[in-house]
Design a protein that fits this description.
The chain is an all-alpha fold. Helices cover about 70% and strands about 0% of the residues. Helix 3 (about 40-60) runs antiparallel to helix 10 (about 220-245) and helix 4 (about 70-90) packs antiparallel against helix 5 (about 95-120). The longest helix has 27 residues, at about 220-245. The termini are far apart.
Length: about 350
């Protein structure tokens, strides 16, 4: 690929503006830990984690239209994988992360096949996956192997990238999460643009019947998208477990986590690349802003849910598909589309008009 090939994609003002914004955002993200004290680096880590969580949910929920709450199970699986394998049995944390990804992917694949077998619509898919998540939380709360109601705590001493653990300076967690987010985003963007599988997903979301008539393997692709989505979601669970160093059903298997992923993606713009990321970072900033007024953690959660409701109502009022579609419309309004209007073709004469008749 020559240097000119990537530049030809910057053929509209919207793409050029987005390229500038993304470049500035990445540069700021890279230097952010050097500009703030360690506690604020921790806030940056949480913001990136929310963005990663939203983005991975968006693969199944936004691109395919599977309104799944089973991602709660994936998030919890990633957390419990490192808790059981690494904290209890001293397996390397990166191996535990991969195990969590594989288990979550298999679970996601089977869930999608099962729901397709029964032909459930999006609403019953949400209810069915919610029931699964509640059952998983009940198992974790009653099973000693997973710490029952007490959870599992970390008591090791290893530190560094090889162990996916940092005690004092959270910059390691920050940059690791940033790396995952960038790599996964680029990978999904390439998947959606350059593969038949990726290009088929929006067709499945809009109308599975028509998609099937076009030769798209709807059930298989839905299952693969769910597997990919849940597998990558488990990475966020592993990272937060290592960060807080305690895992319990109350911390990683709650309905609020699933709702936050779903609502955050929808607010940002379901089916877009940047929308879920922007919404995740915005939610983390809002939570930290509320804490600056000495608001308790319980009230922060309540106020955040109120903010969700306000934003959703505003989006419904303005008839947009989320923050990113609103942003794109604003950029086009200011800078134009950048495309030359096509002149209408002149109509061909069909004959001469003689005495009011075409002759």
């Amino acid at each position: 690929m020559t240097l000119r090939n990537p530049l030809r994609y910057l053929d509209t003002p919207l793409r050029r503006v987005n390229a500038v914004v993304v470049t500035v955002a990445l540069l700021f993200a890279l230097v952010y830990p050097y500009l703030v004290p360690p506690p604020m680096v921790g806030v940056g880590f949480v913001a990136l984690l929310y963005a990663l969580r939203n983005f991975t949910w968006n693969i199944a929920g936004g691109y395919v239209g599977q309104l799944s709450l089973s991602h709660i199970v994936a998030f919890g699986t990633g957390a419990f994988s490192v808790a059981v394998l690494t904290w209890r049995h001293e397996v390397n944390a990166w191996i535990a992360l991969v195990v969590g990804v594989l288990i979550s992917a298999v679970v996601g694949f089977l869930i999608s096949l099962l729901m397709s077998r029964f032909g459930v619509n999006a609403f019953f898919l949400a209810l069915g996956t919610l029931a699964l998540s509640l059952a998983a939380a009940g198992v974790a709360a009653s099973w000693t192997f997973l710490g029952d109601t007490n959870g599992i705590s970390y008591s090791g001493s290893e530190e560094g990238f090889a162990h996916l653990m940092w005690y004092i300076d959270p910059s390691g967690f920050y940059y690791t999460t940033l790396g995952f987010l960038v790599v996964i985003t680029i990978g999904i963007a390439a998947l959606m643009r350059f593969t038949h599988f990726g290009r088929s997903l929006p067709f499945i979301r809009e109308d599975p019947v028509i998609a099937a008539s076009m030769g798209i393997k709807v059930v298989r692709n839905q299952a693969l998208a769910m597997a990919l989505s849940m597998g990558l979601t488990s990475i966020a669970g592993t990272l937060i477990a290592q960060y807080v160093q305690i895992v319990s059903y109350e911390s990683v298997l709650t309905v609020e986590i699933g709702v936050a992923m779903m609502v955050g993606s929808i607010i940002g713009g379901a089916g877009t690349l940047a929308g879920p990321i922007v919404a995740g970072i915005g939610i983390a900033v809002l939570e930290e802003f509320l804490r600056s007024f000495a608001v308790s953690s319980a009230n922060v959660s309540s106020y955040t849910q109120i903010a969700y409701a306000v934003v959703v109502i505003l989006l419904l009022r303005f008839g947009t598909g989320g923050i990113m579609p609103l942003w794109e419309a604003g950029v086009r309004r200011v800078f134009g589309t950048g495309r030359k209007p096509v002149a209408p073709a002149a109509a061909e004469p069909v004959g001469e008009l003689v005495d009011g008749r075409v002759g």
